[in-house]
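DM between two lab members

TW: hey, do you still have the Methyltransferase type 11 domain-containing protein entry open?
JB: yeah, one sec
JB: this one, 197 aa:
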Amino acid sequence: MARKHVSSTNITYRECPAEELPFEDGSIDLVTSMSAFHWFDHSPFLQEAHRVLKPHGCLALINYTMDMELSYGDCSEALNHICKEFYVALLPYRNAYLGPSSFHFYNQTYNSLQYPVKEWQEMFWVKKAVPFSGYIGMVESFSSYQALLEKDPEEARRLSQDITKRLLRAMGVTSLETEVVMGVKYFYLLGCKPAED
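TW: and the structure you got?
JB:
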């Protein structure tokens, strides 16, 4: 899909396992992963990232929590109560490997990372205006929703449609394109590869 839609001549795309990066030693300025590191084989990936990074290159691992919030007019509290019900309904379908949160994978990696220059941020909010359909689409992209969809497609659609109707009713609107402010809570770790001896 990326290759099909590329418009910049200085961007290329390759598909490969995270633990087998197709780059020369010390050739990359930045290795980053958004909401994927927890699925990697951590130790081989970190070794591979270290191998390909240039001296002073940066490793950036980012993820978000399910604690997303919606703001719309004076009904934000009611919206977020409904949103929490959505997340609770999806919890039984969460991959057992992740536990209640993937947070611990990132925090453990930060604590064990042997880079002298590193940074840990365990919570920062990003809030932006999106169409309401964008919020629903994001929740439907969660691995827990996808697991429910695979196990019981009818139940997954029923749950999403029910939550959608309740949220629209609470906002007093009917259009899925109504603009809401979506708040997403992120955490990240950064590490700077030291200069080689």
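TW: got it. The first strand starts at residue 28 and ends at 34. The chain has a mean pLDDT of 94.
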